# Entry
Amino acid sequence: MLMLAKIGLCCTTLIVPLAGCDLGRARLHGHEPREPRHVGDVVLPEVSLNGPDRPFSFRAEPGRLLVVYFGYTSCPDVCPTTLSDLRKALGALGDDARRVDVAFVSVDPRRDSAAVLVPYLQYFARAGHALRPHTQAELAQAERAFGATSSVDTRDDGTVEVMHSALTSVVDASGRVRVVWDFGTKPESMTKDLKLLLAVKAGGD
# Structure
């Protein structure tokens, strides 16, 4: 059952129940999409502080994993909580953390300029990929591929209300989503899933 939870004054997050799944004989703490979800052909602009935007594809490098999260920098608690938990999970991976990349997609690109987005992500993942869609169509295409949703509305009083799904996806080198974590997944659960995927199928099918 889907549940809407109001977060702070201007952020509403879609939360789905956590369920385990099997990968061979091992059990993941997150869940696999009900249908195979391939996102490797989706491309969004990656922004930087000192250069032009460059295209970024949602496909991990061979032998690596890519963790993808849709959010926005002024999110009061869901986004920073998720990214903080991810930072802890990567810290617990030790040397294997070098085999995991992080991509953060802004669902509020009008306010999330490169000057805001890049430092924000670097605080949680120093070598992370800051992705800022140029158009709503680009964002919508990426969200459809990942099963994510978002909306940004400005009220009459000028308050901006952002709604977005709070799911974190792990993508392999084939561009397939291997596991999805719901909001509230513990860092240790993330670490265990990443270790399993790196050991078993980090390179894809």
